[in-house]
Amino acid sequence: MIASLLIANRGEIACRIIRTAREMGIRTVAVYSDADAKALHVREADEVVHIGPSPARESYLVGAKIIAAAKATGAEAIHPGYGFLSENAEFAQAVMDAGLVWVGPKPSSITAMGLKDAAKALMADAGVPVTPGYMGANQDPAFLAEQAAEIGYPVLIKAVAGGGGKGMRKVDGAADFADALASCQREAAASFGNAHVLIEKYILTPRHIEVQVFGDTHGNIVHLFERDCSLQRRHQKVIEEAPAPGMDDATRQQLCAAAVRAAKAVDYVGAGTIEFIADASDGLRADRIWFMEMNTRLQVEHPVTEEITGVDLVEWQLRVASGEPLPLTQDDLTIEGWAMEARLYAEDPAKGFLPSTGPLELFQLPDHIGRVDTGVHEGAEVSPFYDPMIAKLIAHGEDREAARETLSEMLEDSAVWPVRTNAAFLIRALDHPDFVAGAVDTGLIGRDGEAMAAAPEPSAAALTNAAMAMVPRSLQAGFRLNAPGVRSAPFLLDGKRVDVALHGPGTDEPAPAMLVAEAGAVWQLTPWRVEGGAGGAASDGAILSPMPGKIIAVAVAAGEPVAKGQKLLTLEAMKMEHSLIAPFDGVVAELNATPGAQVQVEALLARIEAAG
Ligand code: ADP
Ligand code: ADP
Ligand code: MG
């Protein structure tokens, strides 16, 4: 068994690998860029090596620096994780040439599966059904258009070197083909340095079903059943599960046998995934499931397989890389229950899924239910340099519904701020009737995603609870005494005015601000502040008391001209002073404020009449 391991990655997958290595008594070495100096994987490793500036192409993608780091720390082996250099055959070869152990398949297997066209040709030869289409060398646009017509629209143009859901264009008819081809080729050249494309029949009612395979250096290859990754946004996985809903044993056996054949065809060693596309218009049928591509690495969603099989796939990777045979045979492997994973992203669904970066002032994920794989911690910073996935939440249950409910509960219990996450979006996706029914195709989010992405709003009860923590006991008592029936006060919720119903006794130590955390979303609630633009003044010039309080200064007199922004009076409330300002140029037409007076919320303190 190897005694030390360098992890050539970052984030949750680096932490995931460190966890198993530690359990196996293997010394771990982390590498990190400038942006990751304080990252969780750096904290958790036994030794760390700085490998350069923040951009990945100057650090995590520089093979020579990583090999040098392994040499310098005496690490015996290198685990590439996923992404970055994991499917780079040259890097795998360089690692071995440096006398190190590569935790992954042979470079020749990576190469054979590296380009989608060559991989499909190889698979067709091995008797694995492949997605119908054109995968030849001729890239002449007119010829490709003919091929598309022959395949029959809709078709999917795919960059042969593509990955991560990029470099794909669905084309619905001949009229759009030329433009789609040109733009796909441009994106492919820019993203992958290879403009070559293939054309596939676009499968209708598509479901993404993939099979986990594992090989060792003794010629054994097993499968660890399938995963369903059909809930996707723009060809990228959002929620994954295992097993696949609606998969019967006979279909599973045929599919998994095809996956093992595929792995054998490339003499596969280590963890790999064979991705298939299924036409699910008539349920899952073996004759309507086709090979799409192979990912020659550990997959992001590997935990759902671990949860249903009880196998630690990273442990298997390290054993196989050390020359051991697979710990279990095919007959030893069974499916226990159901598992579901959600990818938690630092992004704002309500703003077009824009990545959200910045400090994680609040980062709380459930620790009492389910499994959480994360690469960040409270106080860390989400940088703009890398993938915005900050955690994976994984639930395991007796059946699909149990796993779904637990995952939903886990997401509800997540609280991250001020960085935005897709937690509320994920909860809504889990609740979608088609998802609940296990009838998900890859187009679900495209069709119904808008409602899932809408900005969540806190409940009145959650707002009241938070608001009460900001209301001093004394003030609240007086307020209730003097104004029976008036039970709401204005606050700022993420900068926008909300009126919150108040009840109960208030608190001895009022908080200056509160976080309202509910259903995976977090908002900041602060007392209504008049300074800084938000203003307590209605457009008609009425200056209302934003909260119950005491007037401590009046800066103007009735009839006096005032300029926009000029301070009118100062109110003390919730242990803070608040200035009320003129909303526009005008004169003080009415003034009902005297220093020392107690005022109620929404009391009319002054009225400004616009000048001219
Ligand atoms: P999966 O999510 O099924 O494991 P993906 O193809 O989505 O597989 O890729 C997993 C990781 O690898 C992601 O971090 C993704 O961004 C990255 N990745 C995959 N292929 C590429 C590529 N060609 N270029 C850049 N990143 C890639
Ligand atoms: P990548 O390397 O980017 O992961 P894939 O070939 O695995 O590319 O395809 C990514 C996703 O695109 C699939 O999971 C599926 O949702 C969709 N897709 C791919 N091929 C087809 C097809 N022929 N018909 C319909 N959808 C497809
Ligand atoms: Mg894929």
From TrEMBL:
Residues 531-609 form the Lipoyl-binding domain. Its cofactor is biotin. Residues 1-450 form the Biotin carboxylation domain. Signal peptide: none annotated. Keywords: ATP-binding, Biotin, Ligase, Nucleotide-binding, Transit peptide. Its EC number is 6.3.4.14, 6.4.1.4. The keyword ATP-binding applies. SMART domains: Biotin_carb_C. GO terms for molecular function: ATP binding; biotin carboxylase activity; metal ion binding; methylcrotonoyl-CoA carboxylase activity. It holds the Pfam family Biotin_lipoyl. PANTHER family: CARBOXYLASE:PYRUVATE/ACETYL-COA/PROPIONYL-COA CARBOXYLASE, METHYLCROTONOYL-COA CARBOXYLASE SUBUNIT ALPHA, MITOCHONDRIAL-RELATED. This is Biotin carboxylase. It comes from Sphingopyxis granuli. The gene is accC3.
